[in-house]
Specification:
Blueprint (H helix, E strand, L loop, with lengths): L2 E3 L6 E3 L1 E4 L19 H13 L4 E3 L8 H13 L4 E6 L13 H15 L4 E6 L8 H13 L3 E7 L3 H7 L5 E3 L13 H8 L2 E2 L25 H4 L10 H17 L3 H10 L7 E3 L8 H6 L6 H9 L3
Parallel strand pairs: 3-4, 3-10, 4-5, 5-6, 6-7, 7-8, 8-9
Antiparallel strand pairs: 1-2
């Protein structure tokens, strides 16, 4: 495993981050709370991650309506270890509950997160999405206070665009957005700002809901339990001939290098010097293996450009 400092936070993270969004639910979708991995299945995944020296775990208060944080908390208590912890807030914890980044809500939600995790502070804290109802300056001031109090080590922004980053003026320590061979919108504004401000960058959805893992076949129904059966909306636009053609080429490129498709997709991200670490959300322990192998697969800039061109 490799490790890097996360932007200017002073906190070192493993280059593969365990995404825990499927523990007790599928992300923050209330209709899927209680689905995803059980506590027992989550514990097996966390055990394997720790064995692989993945020392950074990423969750959120609303993942599974609190079930993800609670599962991690029970695992921490049982194993007696302490990974670098990231959690987030913005989304409602359940139907009809409040959301947002008002200072009083941030404090309340952080308190509940610490209780579920069974810790006195979290190393890293993320705003899960921008809040149009709360001035950004108020949110950042509240987060600065929590850093000063020692309740969080550093904070960042998830699902943010260039306008938010410009307004934040470098106060976020890092950015966590969707980024992959099939989702490159951050290249326009966000990544140049990340580089210019010296921020960390930890992309999620590196396999675009399983598309870059070769999980789906043209003209065939998606496998049961896949993202395209549970939460297809973010990926439905990918079902077009140019993407299928690019996936065929990616498969051939992986075979030529003696690896599988997800390994090559992860390597494309990890070979970008702007990418601090990649958030991997496995459904089974073996799903972590391609990301680990990707750390050993070095791609030069010409190879990265060639792979990116498969989906242009």
């Amino acid at each position: 495993m490799d490790y890097r400092p996360l932007g200017r936070s002073g906190i070192e993270v493993s280059r593969v981050i365990l995404g825990c969004g499927n523990f007790g639910g599928i992300g923050s979708a209330p209709e899927l709370f209680g689905q995803g991995e059980s506590d027992e299945e989550a514990a097996v995944i966390m055990d394997r991650a720790w064995e692989l020296a993945i020392t950074t775990f990423d969750t959120a208060d609303a993942y599974g309506g609190g079930r993800s944080e609670a599962a991690i908390g029970r695992w921490l208590a049982a194993r007696g270890v302490r990974p670098v912890l990231t959690t987030k807030t913005f989304n409602p914890m359940g139907p009809g509950e409040d959301s947002g980044l008002a200072p009083e809500r941030i404090r309340r939600q952080l308190g509940s997160s610490l209780e579920r995790l069974g810790v006195e502070h979290v190393d890293l804290y993320l705003t899960h999405a921008p809040d149009p109802e709360t001035p950004l300056a108020e949110t950042l001031e509240a987060l600065d206070e929590l850093v000063a109090e020692g309740r969080i080590g550093a904070y960042g922004g998830a699902n943010v665009d260039g306008a938010v980053l410009r307004e934040a003026s470098g106060r976020y320590a890092w950015v966590q957005n969707s980024y992959s061979l099939l989702d490159r919108a951050d290249e326009v504004e966000v990544l140049p700002l990340v580089e210019g401000h010296g921020l960390g960058y930890t992309p999620f959805s590196p396999l675009s809901g399983g598309w870059l893992a070769g999980r789906y076949r043209r003209g065939e129904a998606p496998p049961a339990g896949s993202r395209m059966t549970m939460r297809p909306e973010p990926y439905a636009h990918l079902d077009r001939k140019e993407v299928w053609r690019g996936l065929d080429e990616l498969r051939r490129g992986a075979e030529a290098r003696g690896v599988d498709m997800p390994t090559l997709a992860y390597a494309w991200l990890l070979s970008d010097p702007r990418v601090t670490a990649v958030v991997v959300g496995p459904r089974r322990p073996e799903h972590l293996e391609p990301a680990i192998r990707a750390l050993e697969l070095e791609l030069d800039e010409a190879e990265r450009t060639e792979l990116a061109g498969l989906f242009s």
